[in-house]
Every structure is written in C-alpha cells, then in structure tokens.
C-alpha cells in the first residue's frame, strides 16, 4: 500500500507533457477555439450575428442555427496567440438587438477551458439570447411602376419598440418626415442609390411607442433602369455600452447615412418596388 501512494505522488510530480513510464511525450491539449450558440428574440433564423473576440481582433458570423466557432490564429514561429494573458469578452452584435457578451480567460495565448463563461469542453456554458430592441418595417406605394409613370412614390416606415424605450439616429427632414432611404437592386447589391430630401439630416430620436414616418419622392429620384429594388431606411440604434474597438470595425461613417451603414448586421423588413418590368 505504501508503494502505491509513493507511485501516485511521483506521477503528480512529473510534467503533464511527459510519460516517464514509457519515455515518450504526451501531446499537450490545444485550446485555441471556443464554440457556442446565439438566439435572436422574435426571429426564426439566427444567421449573421456578428461575433467578435476583443484583444485578438477576430470575428465570425453565426450560421442559420445560431452556432459559431472562434479560433485564435496560430503562427508556428510564435507562441499561440502571441502568448497573451488576460480576460477578454466575446461580443455578440446585431444593431437592432441588445448587445451580448461572454467572458473568457486566456493564458499564454490559449483559452482557459472550465473558467469564466467557457466550460471544460470549450463551449460557452449557456445559449446567448439577444433581446430585440426595435422592429423596423418599410412599405412603398405604388409597389409596381411602369417606365412611363411620372407620379409620386410614397415610402412609409414604422418603428415598433420591443422594450420600454430605444434611442436611435434617423435621417429626417422634419418631424416624422423621412429624409432619405437606400434603393438597392435585388439582382446586384452593389447597384445602390441614395434617395434623400433637401435639408434632411441625421437626428437623434427616442422611440417609446409605435411611430410612423413618411416620405414622398418623385419618379425621377428613383433608378432609371428596369428591375426589382429593395427600399431600406437609415435607422441606427444607439449602443452606449458598445466598445470602441467593435464600433470601429464597421468604419468611421457607419453611424451616418452612408454606404458603410449597410455593412452593419441588422434585422429589417425592407419594402420592394418593381420599376419598368412587364
């Protein structure tokens, strides 16, 4: 019995990467990745949630089922993760949802499984659920116009708060008059048109009830070429707790009526208009 206890003590004293009984090395466990699942409140698909690991400047997007995997890149000439140590958040972002985050611990450039919000298998312990803040819906009338049509087009936007109140930025000319929209070809998202009213500007608005905006534009403000187009309003939710390093990922102008804004992950119901097709 004394021999068994002595052997156990000796095994504990030996390095975990060496098997002294057989004089060979045990492969150390690599912990460079973290996996998890994200859910979006009131949504059926969870695809496209922006998942960002601070400290390493890496990101991924969720699949349709909400699953994701983040992996610290390896450089065979360096320590994993450059030997970084510390506590780092994983952030989960869709603009019209509440920000989410999970805490991870990193030791010598690898995740420390079994600590903070990561279990011993390298997964986030609980499914991350992002609360929806606001619904953004758009309608257009008429929704089909011929090549010879020369009348006005009416665009309506409805914002429905899902929490008590939400601060947003909107492109507005005057009270409840929408000041600008994007018109984007369904066939080619690079075919983008800015439709804006004179004297419109970026305004801060508090949404604490269902609110409506309207915009009247002339036919010649819309694309000339026949096709099917989506009409998307500029509505940017204010996230005061969003870290600057995450905000900067989307560009300096992403919070303005610009092309960069369209790079933000959002859940929006655009209006569709057909121009000049038989």
Could you describe the 3D structure shown?
The chain has 278 residues and is mainly β. The chain contains two helices and 22 strands. The protein folds into two domains: 101 residues, Immunoglobulins (Immunoglobulin-like, Sandwich); 142 residues, Immunoglobulin-like (Sandwich). It starts with a helix and ends with a strand. The N terminus is likely disordered.
Secondary-structure blueprint:
Blueprint (H helix, E strand, L loop, with lengths): L1 H12 L4 E2 L4 E2 L7 E8 L9 E4 L4 E4 L5 E5 L14 E8 L6 E8 L2 E2 L16 E3 L3 E8 L2 E2 L6 E10 L4 E9 L2 E2 L1 E6 L6 E5 L4 E7 L3 E8 L8 E7 L1 E3 L6 H4 L23 E5 L3
Parallel strand pairs: 3-10, 12-22
Antiparallel strand pairs: 1-2, 3-6, 4-5, 4-7, 7-8, 8-9, 11-13, 13-19, 14-15, 14-18, 14-21, 16-17, 16-20, 20-22
Q: Regions with pLDDT < 50 over 5+ consecutive residues?
A: 1-24
Oligomer: single chain
Mean pLDDT: 89
Distance between termini?
Answer: 92 Å
Report Rg.
Answer: 26 Å
Strand order of the largest sheet: 5-4-7-8-9
User: Which CATH-level-2 architecture of the largest domain?
Assistant: Sandwich
Spell out the helices and strands N to C: HEEEEEEEEEEEEEEEEEEEEEHE
User: In the CATH hierarchy, what is the class of the largest domain?
Assistant: Mainly Beta
Helix content: under 10%
Number of strands: 22
What summary fits the major beta sheet?
Answer: 5 strands, antiparallel
What's the CATH topology label of the largest domain?
Immunoglobulin-like
């Amino acid at each position: 019995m004394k021999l068994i206890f002595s052997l156990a003590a000796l095994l504990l004293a030996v390095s975990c990467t060496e098997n002294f009984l057989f004089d060979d090395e045990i492969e150390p466990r690599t912990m460079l990745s973290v996996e998890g699942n994200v859910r979006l409140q009131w949504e059926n698909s969870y695809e496209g949630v922006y998942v960002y690991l601070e400290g390493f400047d890496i990101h991924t997007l969720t699949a349709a089922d909400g699953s994701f995997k983040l992996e610290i890149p390896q450089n065979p000439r360096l320590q994993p993760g450059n030997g970084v140590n510390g506590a780092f958040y994983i952030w989960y972002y869709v603009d019209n949802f509440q920000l989410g985050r999970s805490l991870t611990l990193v030791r010598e450039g690898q995740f420390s499984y079994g600590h903070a919000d990561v279990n011993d298998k390298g997964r986030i312990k609980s499914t991350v659920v992002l609360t929806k803040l606001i619904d953004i819906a758009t309608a257009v009338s008429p929704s089909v116009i011929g090549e010879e049509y020369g009348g006005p087009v009416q665009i309506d936007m409805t914002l429905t708060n899902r929490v008590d109140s939400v601060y947003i930025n909107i492109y507005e000319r005057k009270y409840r008059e929408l000041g600008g929209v994007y018109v984007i070809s369904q066939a080619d998202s690079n075919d983008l048109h800015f439709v804006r009213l004179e004297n419109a500007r970026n305004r801060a608005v508090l949404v604490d009830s269902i609110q409506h905006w309207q915009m009247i534009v002339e036919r010649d403000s819309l694309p000339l070429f026949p096709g099917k187009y989506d009409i998307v309003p500029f509505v940017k939710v204010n996230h005061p707790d969003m870290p600057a390093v995450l905000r900067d990922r989307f560009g300096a102008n992403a919070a303005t009526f610009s092309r960069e804004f369209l790079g933000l992950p959002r859940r929006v119901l655009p209006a569709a208009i057909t121009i000049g097709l038989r």
